[in-house]
Design a protein that fits this description.
Strand order of the largest sheet: 3-2-1-6-5-4
Organism: Paenibacillus endophyticus
Shape: elongated
Structural class: alpha+beta
CATH superfamily of one domain: Histidine kinase-like ATPase, C-terminal domain
EC number: 2.7.13.3
Helix content: 40-55%
Subcellular location: Cell membrane
Membrane topology: Multi-pass membrane protein
Radius of gyration: 51 Å
Strand content: 15-25%
CATH class of one domain: Alpha Beta
GO molecular function, one term: phosphorelay sensor kinase activity
CATH topology of one domain: Heat Shock Protein 90
């Protein structure tokens, strides 16, 4: 095995490239990536911490406000005048009724004015069919509002109830009998505009926003119109996540999402901030970023130049030399003055060419001559039993005086021996080879017409003009007669057929002989596969090797058990697409 000298490591191309890459590229990339990621991470974490603290404080303030409103609401439930109106309204005279209604309106107005979060306060008194509100005064009993607020409050158990796209607080006063409807319901409607204003105040960063979610009440409130598409995306895919901070992509833009929850109110407040806003403080690093880009480009140019000079160009020269060698040029020695890996490769490549030229002269040409000699041997081989049988047939025809058949037979016999003994070009048209094989079967029919039948299919026109070596089909047929069909007690059958495939043509010879066992077929296949075997250079082995030498890997003879129960021999001819001259 060839070894590179140890002292040549100081000239190693790989060491120089790796060292240059580490010195020029890696520190810059690592420094830039680290600075950017560190700054971005710190900025986003700081913003998230501030936002979460602000939202938690907002929810605490909102909870205290709601608790105060609930206190006012329950004070109303205990108000003596309100209870008298609900119970003994029919016993009052008109003056007393007016006095108590004025008192109740004044009380509701006072409560409404005590908090900016109250849009209106209602008292639904079922017993007198009246609804009283700070905004609309005394009017007819709002049965629909009454039933909705009562039903939702009983079913959800939430402090806050959604009605008409706003949040409400409700409290009911029941009579003494179980199962009766409430005597009256005190309902406080929260001011959605005020809630929106408070949400807008949370958006301290440019293009940021927030929205309020009451999942149990089925209520959402956006701080501005631009929030709607972000709110829809959040509700449709991310509201189930437990993380307080996350990233969300909406219409191709990334947003930082922060969420705070209030278990007391059953509310969640969510804020969003465009990722570009988080990165804005990093603009001060623009100078360093451009410097980083410029340095990286310079490093890439330097690295590309040296890679081309030290690797690509020498490698391209080596590849081109290999391609020229594949084309048959063996006088393409490479000159290289550098003491690196390519100098070592070029030196070995030059030595390989010199040795290859010697091997071609000593080995390859000898094998070609041997293959031609094998073909000549097969051509000159006239089997005695075929010659004897031919003379026997002539003798029989002469005795019977059948001069017509005798003339036909002698013509066929003459054509047969002319084809196998002629010298000249080694390749013939496939149509001529098949004509010779068919003539051989016709000769055999005169001898075995009663015991052996032959089905010889027509050669497809597309295969007529294929150039093939001589004597590749007839010897296969002759082998079938000699080793199988002649010895059969019952009627023998020989079938010659053709198949066309995209990059392969098949000539198939099969018989119905049963004398050949599977083990014998396996042995023949093994011997055909061993192309280095120097024995049996006639017959099937001769044909197989000549076909492989002519058409390349994948061509040759392929044996198997025929469906007729005899031997099936496939002559496979591999072709290049668009090339009929195999």
């Amino acid at each position: 095995m060839l070894k590179i000298p140890v002292n040549s490591m100081r000239h190693a191309l790989f060491i120089r490239l790796v060292f240059m890459y580490l010195v020029v590229i890696l520190p810059i990339i690592l420094l830039g990536v680290y600075l950017y990621n560190w700054s971005y991470k710190n900025a986003s974490e700081e913003i998230s911490r501030n936002t979460l603290a602000q939202m938690s404080s907002y929810l605490e303030d909102l909870n205290r406000e709601v608790e105060w409103l609930e206190i006012q609401q329950f004070d109303m439930l205990q108000d003596a005048e309100l209870n008298k109106i609900a119970v003994i309204w029919e016993l009052m005279d008109n003056a007393e009724k007016k006095e108590r209604m004025d008192y109740l309106l004044h009380r509701l107005t006072s409560i409404k004015n005590s908090s900016a979060y109250i849009n209106d306060i209602y008292v639904h008194i079922r017993s007198i069919d009246k609804t009283i509100s700070a905004g609309n005064g005394v009017h007819d009993f709002e049965r629909e509002r009454y039933n909705h607020i009562r039903t939702v409050s009983e079913q959800s158990g939430s402090r806050l109830v959604e009605q008409n796209d706003s949040l409400h607080l409700s409290a009911s006063k029941f009579g003494g009998r179980k199962g009766d409807e409430p005597l009256f319901i005190v309902q406080i409607e929260l001011n959605s505009e005020k809630l929106k204003e408070s949400l807008v105040q949370l958006s301290v960063y440019p293009k940021s926003g927030s929205f309020l979610i009451a999942e149990m009440a089925g209520f959402t409130l956006s701080g501005n119109i631009q929030t709607e598409n972000i709110l829809d995306k959040y509700l449709n895919g991310m509201n189930h996540l437990k993380e307080n901070s996350m990233l969300m992509k909406v219409e191709g833009r990334n947003y930082h999402i922060d969420k705070a929850d209030s278990a007391q109110l059953g509310l969640s407040i969510v804020t969003y901030l465009p990722e570009a806003t988080v990165k804005r403080p990093l603009n001060r690093f623009n100078y360093w970023a451009w410097l980083f880009v410029g340095t990286s480009l310079l490093a890439i140019i330097v690295y590309s130049f040296y890679t081309y000079k030290l690797v690509h160009r020498p490698l391209l020269l080596l590849v081109q030399s290999f391609r020229r060698m594949e084309g048959g040029s063996l006088d393409i020695l490479i000159e290289h003055g550098q003491k690196d890996e390519f100098g070592y490769l070029y030196d070995r490549f030059n030595q390989m060419l010199i040795k290859l030229q010697s091997l071609i002269d000593q080995d390859f040409k000898q094998k070609l001559m041997m293959q031609k000699a094998e073909l000549k041997q097969l051509q000159s081989q006239i089997k005695p039993h075929f010659l004897y049988n031919s003379f026997f047939i002539l003798n029989s025809l002469a005795k019977t005086g059948d001069t017509e058949r005798m003339e036909i037979f002698t013509n066929m016999l003459g054509e047969y021996f002319r084809f196998i003994t002629r010298n000249g070009e080694e390749n013939v048209w496939l149509s001529e080879e098949i004509k010779h094989a068919r003539m051989y079967t016709e000769i055999q029919k005169l001898r075995f017409s009663r015991r052996i039948s032959v089905q010889f299919d027509d050669l497809p026109k597309e295969m007529d003009r294929i150039r093939v070596p001589r004597l590749v089909v007839q010897p296969i047929i002759e082998n079938a007669y000699e080793h199988s069909l002649e010895n059969m007690a019952e009627e023998g059958f020989l079938h010659v057929s053709f198949e066309q495939q995209p990059l392969e043509w098949l000539i198939i010879v099969e018989d119905n002989g049963s004398s050949l066992e599977d083990a014998a077929i396996d042995s023949l296949i093994l011997r055909l596969g061993n192309t280095d075997d120097e024995h049996e250079m006639t017959g099937m082995m001769n044909i197989h090797r000549r076909i492989m030498l002519t058409y390349g890997e994948g061509s040759g003879l392929f044996l198997s058990r025929s469906k007729l129960n005899g031997l099936r021999v496939e002559i496979r001819i591999k072709i290049k697409e668009g090339d009929l001259d195999a």
